[in-house]
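Work package 3, deliverable 3.1, input record:
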Amino acid sequence: MAAVQPNFQDSLERARAAQSRAGEAFTLCLACGFTPLALRVQLVAAVAELLPTRRIECVTSTIEELLEGRLPPAHGVAVTCEWSDLDPRLGVRRAGGWGGDAAADAIATAEQRLALLVDRVLAAAQQSRVALALPTLELPPVFATPAPAADPLALRLQAAVAASAARCAAAPRVAVLERDALELESPLGARRDVARELAYDTPYTPEHSAKLATAVARLTVPALPLKGVITDLDDTLWRGLAGEVGPDGVTWDLDHASQPHALYQQLLASLAANGTLVAVASKNDPEVVAAVLERRDLRLDARTLFPVEVGWGEKSAMIDRILAAWNVAADAVAFVDDSAFELEQVRSRHPSLVCLRFPGDPRAVLELCRELRDRCGRAAPSAEDRLRRDGLAAQARAEAERVASGTSMEDFLAGLRARTTIAFDRPEHATRALELVNKTNQFNINGQRIDEIAWQRQLERPGTVLVTVDYEDRSGPLGVIGAMIAAPRAEAVEVSAWVLSCRAFSRRVEYRMLRAMFDHFRTPAVSVVYTPTARNARVREFLGAFADVGESTTVRVPRERFDAACPHLYDEVVTHE
Amino acid sequence: MSDVRGSLRECFQAAFPAVPLSSLETLTPERDSVWDSLATLTLVMLVEERFGVRIPTDKIPQLLSFDAMAGYLETRH
């Protein structure tokens, strides 16, 4: 978690400013069993930082209201449940008896309420994104066993909490705060302010409240994961200079005190398995590197590395080529190198690239792995996430073969054996379509980001049709790589959202999608609600072939102009209506 | 001394943004409904943060006016 200074006045001012912003509101519901003064302020301030263009409206509810299923509708629900919410005897404001039968009875009550809490959280997640923080405070001496021995009842209680957390964390749209992550930021012994809890029902120290608010805000409004990691090799992916010690001389194991490199390798392997792109940029001898990458003791599959840029040129030029091969922007990528000089050189060319130094200290390597996991990791990777890497590599290989063989683009496309499946109103594609909307920059007609609730409302509007496109060719499947929201109007079909993954570029899928609009709706024109952004010049270029494109306008594409300018489409089309 | 009162005035401003500056120093919880228990806690947190002090919780009820708070802080600076 990012370090945030618990400056209450600053949070207060930022929260007030966020609540009076113009524009569409992000509604937030904070459910907790105590007076949430500081937590509410800090939570709104933290959410406002993550959603800088949205007005933040925050309502507070109690845990009782949550358990009774009476939470108000909201885009995001933040639940902070403390021990006293599970049974008042587990807190300090009610003296209902500790030890013996009272403790056992409190545990039984807590287990029942936890079960109900899980049900309510899962129900709330049908409509909202839910962030859940289970008890963050230390238990009072409710149980008889003297510390440091663990009490069986206390262990039973903790097991019930952990089981509840596991059930919630496995559900879509629920994120559970990890205890260790919070502990690293806010030590357990510094969280409770008993005097203020007794006097004002505010149990948290300001510092803990600020840390908790920051963490819960990040669960409520999660950041998009980075799409790729570019790694150096010598003294980063492995210890040693391969060119000097040879392919067998570089190490990543305990015997050579280079185990941190093995940890880094397996972290990259884990990210790659979940769809993160991993590439290499190394000043090195290509033959030596190829020999190292063939070693069987490597902790990641070398085939997951794409592209592998090895040579003696500048790293920033290598990164240019990698970004081009991936077709992603620099701000969606991290670069890891042990050399401060190389990092600086790369940063000067790509200021938005996340540049991370591979450290010499093993403890710092673990921190680096944690940071990469947090920046790139996906809790629930989609099938398309996993297909991305293979698709890109296959695409790049095919393009290289085409250029090498002198094949024309038309012959190349004709020989692709492409198959495009266009689906109209498939609810099972809604989540993937939203994911595409929120992470696509280049072919995105307006660059808008949208939350799950607003997306659902948009889809439920009468007459609205979700159109998705699944693509595969001889190189393999790419999965669902395009989505549109269309609505038939009097004289044209209006397209209010349209995104196409960069993996589908140069396959004419965008033409196929527009063709499908004309064919499916039998419309004389398609109106695309286009807003130029810093990144979507490709949309402008595409639409400009059929229509007059202004700045921030609806672009009307008449059928006859589309028919006249649309190139030949070679794909086989399957339509699900 | 005046630094304490000036900084305290800024805390009152942050805690009571809707109250005119000229009225801040005469606010009381008994007379002004804007000063409720949440406002008290907000003010205490702002003061603690600004002055780097920890106000004992049992002392708070005695500090519910600008002058009382200023007097308390002046003895600590």
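The first helix of chain A runs from residue 8 to 19.
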